[in-house]
Amino acid sequence: MWYLVELYLPVFSVRDAESYQVAVSMLVPLPSTVVGAVGAVLGRMGYCRGDECLKEARRQIRLARAVAPTAAKSPVVLRRLRGVLEEGKLPDSIKDITRDVAGLSDAMTREYVFAWRLALILEGDVKREHLYLIDRLGDSESLVSVVDVAEVEPVECTGRVNVVVKSRVVRGGDYMLVRGFDERGDRSIFAVPLRVEGGLYRASDVEVEGPVKCVEKGDLRAVFPEGYGW
Q1: Contact partners, residue 204, CB within 8 Å, separation at least 6
Q2: What does the pLDDT read at residue 156?
Q3: φ and ψ at 135, to 5 degrees?
Q4: Residue 69: inside a domain, yes or no?
């Protein structure tokens, strides 16, 4: 089953895995982020626990790609309990927290992407109602609202691709290269169809070899390569 998912989101931050103190954000949620969000839904509904949910989400979703949005980036300084996150446990008592706030937390700079609207295409065995329950794409502040999940049928079309694809299938166009993880959790290099104009990242498109397909709903349109492996 193919779905075209429409989300509203004020900001989101999907940290580049190679960044740390300054948490650089991806400009769009990559496939692994979308799969992880579905896994979180399955966990909240009680179908699985922990890593089992991620495995089940990977089984259900064969493709999960974002349509490139127009967006802007901005850094934000946050205070996080990083000591707790790194050690994987809470202090023994509330007194330990109040006594050693400085030792448990520190400030970090995190980039956030401002893109009020986002579209995703998904293909797999995931249930439509589960996609409506996605509430985050990225870190804990990256709240999203799913406003529509449309069942769609891809049709052959012409034009350039406007979704995130693996760089090896790209033959031209305006795009940015990023490292990340695909639906299976394998590391890959992705081409994100965006171009820089002043302080904005504008939605663009890329050329690929072979036929392309389209799905549409209202004013949303996703163009992507035929088949799988892209």
Answers
A1: 68, 162, 173, 174, 175, 193, 194, 195
A2: 95
A3: -120, -10
A4: yes
Residues with Cβ within 8 Å of residue 192, at least 6 apart in sequence: 27, 28, 68, 164, 175, 176, 177, 178
C-alpha neighbours within 13 Å on the C-beta side of residue 27: 26
Q: Give a yes or no: residue 200 inside a domain.
A: yes
pTM, entire model: 0.85
* CA–CA gap between residue 230 and residue 170 (Å, rounded): 9
Cα angle for residues 213, 219, 220 (degrees, 5° grid)? 45
Lowest-confidence segment of 13-17, 172-176, 183-187 by average pLDDT = 13-17
**Span 55-113, pLDDT tens digits:** 999 999 999 999 999 999 887 776 666 555 555 556 666 665 555 555 555 556 788 88
Inside any domain, residue 230: no
Q: How confident is the model over 122-167, as pLDDT tens digits? A: 999 999 999 999 999 988 788 999 999 999 999 999 999 999 999 9
> Residue 208: which CATH number?
3.30.70.3120
Which residue(s) pair with 64 in the sheet? 122
* 152: containing domain: 2-225
CB neighbour list of residue 100: distance below 8 Å, 6 or more residues apart: 91
On whether residue 41 sits in a domain, the answer given is yes
Cβ contacts of 17 within 8 Å, gap of 6 or more: 179, 180, 181
Domain tally, the chain: 1
